[in-house]
Structure formats: C-alpha cells, structure tokens
C-alpha cells in the first residue's frame, strides 16, 4: 500500500539476471543490456528470457498510521463507495487506501506512510465517511513495517512491536499440487 508515495515494485529493480533462449546468462540494468532491462521489469510480457535473480533498491519505511473502517449495512454501500471514490484520490500521496465492497458490508483500509494517528484522524474526519450509516472505525498510529504488512489480513489495528507475528507473510505457496483424477466425459 505504499505505491502512491514510492511507486510499484518494478520501480525498485536495479538489475536482473536473465537467461536467454540460447542459455546465455546476462545482467540487465540501466547501464548493461539496457534492451533487456525494461522487459525484465515487467514491460515485455516475459518473452525475452527467464529471470533468475533481481537486485532491488530497499527503502526503510517510517512509522505510520493505519485506518480500518467497516459498514455492516447493505443500504449504505453505494453512498460509502461514492464518497470514498470522490475523496480518496485527492488525499496526500503518502495516504494509500482501498475499498472492498461485499454483498453484506463495505470495508475501507488505509495507510498513511510516515503520518501520525492525529493526521490520519483529521483526514478521515474530513472525508465525511464517518457520517454515513454506522461505521466501525479503528485508527492506529506509530505502526512499524511488520504491522503494515499484516494490516487488513491478520489484524485491523497496530500491535506493539514485540506482539507482531508476520509469519503469515513468510510462507511460500505450493506451486503445484496433484488434483484427483476426474472421470473423462465425451461430448457428442
């Protein structure tokens, strides 16, 4: 959720190792094999080679503020979504947010990168969202990076640094798994 302020992941690629169809391995960067650098950052549809390694520019994220709002009323979904879409894009680039509209609820999650709880509270108050229906709202401040990574997935509030368990984000999904064989049917 930092992309409004910091860009997307591919903006932070410094170089990539690329294996070409002939088996040759090259380093693509702004100064070496530039013709492969752009596609290796996602601009080429994966047709130039196999990427085996990336070198990334890392950024230390400042302590930040987070907001989670939820409306459990179906009759406010449209008004909440409309207000959010009018308000959110005009906020400072350090504030990134998303709206999730479900059949029976609406949820807004936001992260104010480097912002305080008080700054975020002012943004939310000025949005007019809290005036619609009966929202549940949680605004937390002084959130560390691991808090931001689990926010909205595991918890909707910042936990003390020593209580954050971000292990859910450190697992690798199984790439392939067997699927039970289904009977073959023939179309006539």
UniProtKB/TrEMBL annotation:
Keyword Ribosomal protein: no
Gene3D superfamilies xref list: 3.30.465.10, 3.40.462.20
Cofactor names: FAD
Keywords, comma-separated and alphabetical: FAD, Flavoprotein, Oxidoreductase
Molecular function terms from GO: flavin adenine dinucleotide binding; oxidoreductase activity
Signal sequence residues: none
Domain of life: Eukaryota
Family designation: Belongs to the oxygen-dependent FAD-linked oxidoreductase family.
Protein name: Berberine/berberine-like domain-containing protein
Organism: Endocarpon pusillum
